[in-house]
Design brief:
By secondary structure, this protein is an alpha+beta fold. The protein contains 13 helices and 23 strands. The protein has a seven-stranded antiparallel sheet. Strands 8-3-2-12-22 form a five-stranded parallel sheet, covered by helices on one side. Strands 1-11-10-9 form a four-stranded mixed sheet, with no helix packed on it. A hairpin with a 6-residue loop joins β15 and β16. α1 packs parallel to α5. It binds dihydroflavine-adenine dinucleotide. Dihydroflavine-adenine dinucleotide (FDA) binds next to α1, α2 and α13. Its cofactor is FAD. Pfam families: HI0933_like (PF03486), HI0933_like_1st (PF22780). Keywords: FAD, Flavoprotein. It comes from Ramlibacter tataouinensis (strain ATCC BAA-407 / DSM 14655 / LMG 21543 / TTB310).
Length: about 400
């Protein structure tokens, strides 16, 4: 049986980074993945450019950008290996990058730059890799983990599970990490798709399906008054429902049967604007609306009520108020999500109460670690999930 100081299962963002750092700290590390390629999600991330971190991440207040049953769990790892630390590493590797919207940092060229960075870090640490290699069983005895793999049995006193969540099964996602957690008696917070488009009942959605492809800035909200979450982002209409950053962000907080509230003309004071128009304009209401929302949306919207399909000076105050109210307070209940096939991440996962926030080691199972997305730590859209992968991988590597 080949033995190592640490075995890492999952050669994604967290696993590669952790293995590389641990190797550079002098450990003999084996990294195993069942997929033929490393870091498939890094490859497809950020539209192929990898949104690798976010400058606005405040490690002292992680609840601002992360959710989970204990959103402050990630504070320790995020403060010890920060966005600045990863940016410095990106600079050392000579990877050009730029800042987009709201602190999001993307590579200038391709996400392959980041895969090369991760592989180079592993090489610098002498990490051995087996891939594609399935794991068939894990046993713990006499203080070490014995792992049955396609390539024969291997053993180590430390086992790091970095197999991510359930999103995008077509490129290797599996429930492996949750099964390992349960095997060792650790609780798992029920996983659910997050950062995911939302869908609506076919018939009810029919009037809006014609808007597929339309994008506009909105304010979107969900939750009761006490727990309201709101985002000011772009919305995208699709054939089956809603997507775009606004919806992806709110989807992580949305619960089945809960309504969403959308302001499709944020900041426009629409009712006042339409009343003013009424005093001096003979234009169709749809044309007046088009000053505040895209013309396609204005056209589709006025078709919902005969009282809105006329010149603005002929409309009643009541009809204009109803129109403004419906555009700036559109309430609708999604029937579901597009599921793991389209979700960028999986919310839920290994219960953080089972893990040390300093080392990511299971409190009740010495030598067993969980890092990255498999843990019940979910970041907002915008580079937060990769930063959690880097920070949790780094924190774990220090403890191995
Ligand atoms: P990750 O999923 O990266 O890696 C898990 C690894 O484990 C995989 O290599 C898999 O093959 C392996 N594995 C799974 N089951 C196994 C088993 N049974 N045996 C062996 N190996 C197994 N985030 C962000 O911050 N910025 C961004 O731009 C994007 N963009 C983005 C786009 C898209 C389309 C998606 C789907 C996701 C993103 N994300 C993102 C999210 C980000 O990709 C994700 O949070 C991280 O990759 C999580 O890193 P992990 O290493 O935890 O899992």
């Amino acid at each position: 049986m080949q033995t190592y100081d640490a075995i890492v299962i999952g050669a994604g963002a967290a696993g590669l980074f952790c293995a590389g750092i641990a190797g550079q700290l002098g450990l003999k590390v084996l990294l195993i993945d069942h997929a033929p390629q490393v870091a498939e999600k890094v490859r497809i991330s950020g539209g192929g450019r990898c949104n690798f971190t976010n400058r606005e991440l405040d490690p002292r207040a992680p609840h601002k950008h992360f959710l989970g049953e204990n959103p402050n769990f990630c504070r320790s790892a995020l403060s010890r290996y920060t966005a600045q630390d990863f940016i410095a590493l990106v600079q050392r590797h000579g990877i050009p990058y730029h800042e987009k919207h709201k602190g999001q940092l993307f590579g200038d060229r391709s996400s392959q730059d980041f895969i090369r960075l991760l592989l180079a870090e592993c090489e610098a640490g002498g990490v051995q890799r087996r891939q594609p290699c399935a794991v068939h069983g894990i046993a713990f005895s006499a203080g070490r983990y014995e792992i049955q793999t396609d390539g024969g049995p291997v053993a180590a006193p430390a086992l790091v599970v970095a197999t991510g969540g359930l999103s995008i099964p077509q490129i290797g996602a599996s429930d492996f990490g949750y099964r390992v957690a349960r095997q060792f008696g650790l609780r798992v917070v029920e996983p659910r798709p997050a950062l995911v488009p939302l869908t609506f009942d076919g018939e009810a959605w029919a009037p809006y399906a014609q808007l597929a492809g339309l994008s506009l800035p909105v304010r979107i909200e969900t939750g009761s008054k006490k727990e309201r979450m709101a985002f000011d982002e772009d919305l995208l209409f699709t054939h089956r429902g809603l997507s775009g950053p606004a919806v992806l962000q709110i989807s992580s907080y949305w619960r089945p049967q809960a309504p969403l509230r959308l302001d499709l003309a944020p900041g426009a004071a629409l009712e006042d604007q339409l009343r003013q128009a009424k005093a001096g304009s003979r234009k169709l209401i749809a044309n007046e609306l088009a000053a505040h929302v895209p013309a396609r949306l204005a056209d589709a919207w006025v078709r919902q009520d005969a009282g809105w399909q006329r010149p603005v000076n002929e409309a009643s105050d009541k009809a204009l108020a109803a129109l403004a109210g419906r555009l700036s307070g559109w309430e609708l209940v999604p029937t579901g999500t597009e599921g793991y096939r389209k979700a960028e991440v999986t919310a839920g996962g290994v219960d953080t109460r089972e893990l040390s926030s300093q080392t990511l080691e299971a409190q009740r199972q010495p030598g067993l670690y969980f890092i990255g997305e498999v843990v019940d730590v979910t970041g907002w859209l915008g580079g937060y999930n990769f930063q959690w992968a880097w920070s949790s991988g780094w924190a774990c590597a220090q403890a191995l």
